[in-house]
Structure formats: C-alpha cells, structure tokens
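Write out the 3D structure for:
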Amino acid sequence: MPESVLPALQIVLILVLVAWMITGFTRAPGRWLRWKMFCRATFTIIELTGTTKNGSTEPVNVYDHLSPGSFILGPPQLQAILDHLTASGRYERIDGTGRVLSARGEQPVKVVAGRVVL
C-alpha cells in the first residue's frame, strides 16, 4: 500500500501544479496575462520615425537607449528617452504610433513632435 501512495501523490501534485500554471497564464478581463509580473508592468510597443536637422527621416529604436537587459518601457520612460534624443540634437522631431500593454489592458499611444500622447 505505501509503495503505491507515493507515486499517486506525486501525480496529483504534478497535475495541481500544471493546472495552477495554466490558469496563472490565461487572460483575465482587463489584464494582459494574469501573472503578477505582467499585470503590474507596462510595455510599450511603438514604431518611431525621427527627423534629423537636414530633413531626412530614419527609424528610431528607443530600446537602443535603455540599459542592457531592460525591456519594460512605460510612457514616462519613453518620454524621458524622447526628451534626451531631441535635447541632444540628434533629432529635431520624433513621431510614431503604437500601443501600451498594462494592467488596464491595451491602449493606443502616439508620439507627436516628441511628446507621448495616450
């Protein structure tokens, strides 16, 4: 009897763990994933175009200006990077569109003349 109880208990615990993991990563209304790291973090997915002083345009990757390993970028951090890029003289104007994923769900975001507009 004790020999069959241990494997049965292990199987039950594994099934409970798998069920918990599956429900932990499913969508909940108004949230982007349910895992606490995801529902408290804010991600910005955006496509930006910078206009240089000579009038040419080029794509701007804001993630190039974050510290290595950083991937969470909210609107305030995006605004700080845009301010840095325009104040440094690298770009006269930065525009773009994208979306913000947060605990409140998905929202559209625009960048107009270097300003983040939600």
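The helical segments are 2-24, 36-40, 75-87.
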